[in-house]
Task: inverse folding
């Protein structure tokens, strides 16, 4: 869609699709502009641009016109090996005074900054903070939103340990 950019992060792409998955129904393909040079590769859809800097340091910037709304820089993207399994991690920068909203039904403050939000739908009973309406989408007061298209457990650390990032 115009003003929407899809970024995929995968590890070992090409295996069997075991599902489940969130089905996306995109409209007609928008007109996009693509440029690639020695310093950066860029894709623009409407007012939104994703710029992947190649040098001096690798980073991904998301721009609304000329204004950077968020970015992912050094150590922003990682594959983690833990005793519980492998996990992909992405960290998007937050600006000073930027607030994060959304993520579905929660029994916590409306502004998610400072919270760790685990999203996984299961029966939590009546004596827990487990919610039934998890939504893998958040908005910020800087005018952009992020949807994580992943049906398994997702954990957001919203300006908690690293106050300048959403992990």
Result:
């Amino acid at each position: 869609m115009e003003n929407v950019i899809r970024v995929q992060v995968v590890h070992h792409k090409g295996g069997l699709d075991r599902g489940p998955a969130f089905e996306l129904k995109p409209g007609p393909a928008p007109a996009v502009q693509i440029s690639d040079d020695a310093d950066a590769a860029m894709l623009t859809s409407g007012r939104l641009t994703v710029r992947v800097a190649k040098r001096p340091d690798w980073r991904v910037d998301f721009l609304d016109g000329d204004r950077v709304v968020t970015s992912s820089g050094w150590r922003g993207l990682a594959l983690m090996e833990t005793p519980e399994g492998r996990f992909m991690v992405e960290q998007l920068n937050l600006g000073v005074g930027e607030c994060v909203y959304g993520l579905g039904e929660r029994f916590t403050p409306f502004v998610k900054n400072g919270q760790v939000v685990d999203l996984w739908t299961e029966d939590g009973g009546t004596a827990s903070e487990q919610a039934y309406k998890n939504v893998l989408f958040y908005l910020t007061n800087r005018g952009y939103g992020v949807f994580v298209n992943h049906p398994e457990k997702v954990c957001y650390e919203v300006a908690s340990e690293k106050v300048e990032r959403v992990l």
